[in-house]
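Can anyone check this?
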Amino acid sequence: MSQLSQRPESPVVGQRQRHESAAEHVTGSARYTDDLAQRLTGVLHAYPVQSTEAHAKILGLDTSGASAIPGVVRVITAADIPGVNDQGAKRDEPMLPVDEVMFYGQPVAWVLGEDLEAAKAGAGAVKVDYEPLASLITIKEAIAAQSFHGIKPTIDKGDISGAFADAAHVFEGDFEFSGQEHFYLETQNSLALVDESGQILIHCSTQHPTETQDIVSHVLGIPAHEVTVQVLRMGGGFGGKEMQPHGYAALAALGAVLTGRPVRVRLNRTLDMTMTGKRHGFYATWKIGFDAQGKILALDAGLTADGGWSLDLSEPVLTRAMCHIDNGYWVPNIRVRGRIAKCHKTSQTAFRGFGGPQGMLVMEDILGRVAPKLGIAARELRRRNFYAQGQDTPYYQPVRHPERLDAAWQQVLESAQITQREAQISEFNARNENTKRALALTPVKFGISFNLTAFNQGGALVLVYKDGSVLVNHGGTEMGQGLHTKMLQVAATTLGVPLSAVRIAPTRTDKVPNTSATAASSGSDINGGAVKDACEQIQARLAQVAAGKLGVPAHEVRFGNGKITALGKSQELSWEETVRDAYFQRIQLSAAGFYRTEGLHWDLSQMSGTPFKYFAYGVAASEVEVSRFDGSYTLARVDIVHDVGDSLSPLVDLGQIEGGFVQGAGWLTLEDLRWDTSDGPGRGRVATQAASTYKIPSFSEMPEEFNVSLLDKAHEEGAVYGSKAVGEPPLMLAFSVREALRQAVAEFGPAGCSVQLASPATPEAVFWAIESVREPSLIEEKVR
């Protein structure tokens, strides 16, 4: 067992600890970025002037009206930017437009006011003269216009033509599905000030402080060491704060430099929903071949991502979607072509799963549609195609531990009593003409690591004070997911001290530099490895001190429960006295830790290699009941078994699994993201721009029975204390809800009917799907 994954006796990791800020969250005393503005005087408030065109030339920008508004201090335009006017990952995203707007709601200028109302009134007084240009709003409009940007990668493995020629069954189809609004509780938020030394300090709700620092530095035209970004905590991120916060932080910093006063940028919900990127919607075409036993022989697919007006992170989102189209199934012969549609909409961005859900959804939709045509139950068709030992992915990465997927599948079958319940459901459906039930099982195989190999590194700074207390700084950010809780447990375990002896400091770029985003489910892996490394350096120095007092070699010294002992010795030392002794011996009591994920390599040009450290597995079973009359449905029961390795913090992991599943169910069944596609004056406007028009899951959509278990005997060698990532994979467990809805709809039609179901599968979509199976002529299925 590796040193990284080996656990000592009586570790703090693995204990069921509550979230480190749980009490503050539930009492309302937790502080967020916006709360910090109350501690400052003279704070200016920023409000945007938004474009009223989806695509247009800017002929004129008159800010004189705003300057006449009482309380307006300054209007910021592109001309005020001293450095590079760009806030994007690919340098194709002007922070403020110079002569052209690219989406409805794009900020054209920002007004700074003494209060928010003054800034808002000033923004309303700014006049912009536009020359409207042709716009592309839907992904199909972009495809028809051949409007694409970025790379066009291809995965090509095996002999596609030969496999299709040998196939006993071949099916073709297409599938368009929607994106998703992040709807984090805390909207985009930045607070910038220039301190007494001329340093620019930015409090920001960002998942990627280092990149926020980079963007601010080049927008202002100054080196990075003049910019410090701090993240106290976030009220949710879900990927929407990986790239999107940078421009708002830069605007706040620019305003602070221009005025000499602190500047606050806080978007209200409507501004956030109309200005920020979403999960990418996709359009997929596919052709799949099976042998006579229902084994997949070949898949030929095309994936088009709706990227919006600039690239943002669309390229890695697309490639991850392509790498996850197999989900948990072996496809020996496969070709996948990818491209990114350029539309006049918000620039779509990272969202929990980062393209993986979109690729996996295509495969699950295919299997759900073709199973009836093959005469095989969907559950059995899925099981027959699971990966087995010795098989590799479409990009040639060997699949380790595929038996864990089988184990999770079997555990769900047994614990959820699937066979007995399926029999009960059949009896219910036979007795009820207008209400049908169904139960579906779906698997998850999700790769863990960043697409870009360089991002798979993390840093930490651990400080031990003379009294024995410990302060941990690491490069990850806390957005409610429990990363800080896990890092506390890692530090306490490594040093052998009680959890109460360790404290986490806010994430800051002047403490841990050059960090990666807290994203790709890698926060615990890379930051945990760095924290462990720093703690081990300190522990090794303390072991020398203790060895001298105990009269043993340093390698025989043991740390645990705040005590220091030696093999074969009854004497014990306290942690505090050993630290004190080390201080008087002038032993360094701080350390910078570092971690890099080993074994990764990726050739983007060939779409091949080993981009992932490991795969996380999971299985979910969902039972639904659907009404024929209006398509309404209830989610009656959910059973999940999920692989998190040896959990660092079981309560945190269980919460992440439940939350991820619910967010996935929202994307697949409720959250109907829409833009105005008319030719009227609102063309390109986000039509769902508030909670009143965009439905996210609430308590009423929760299953009456929700059972979640962690997979047993799932130690992951080579990961911090044998754990696995948990942030993203559970979202895809919600495929089981959509597939259960599909199977329930099929119960209203003739035996063996194939159901095409929209995504999201809203009650309206389910109603029309029911109507289509009751009228088989409405089903369009190309079958040979």
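Reply from J.R.: I decoded it. The CA atoms of residues 662 and 698 lie 9 Å apart.
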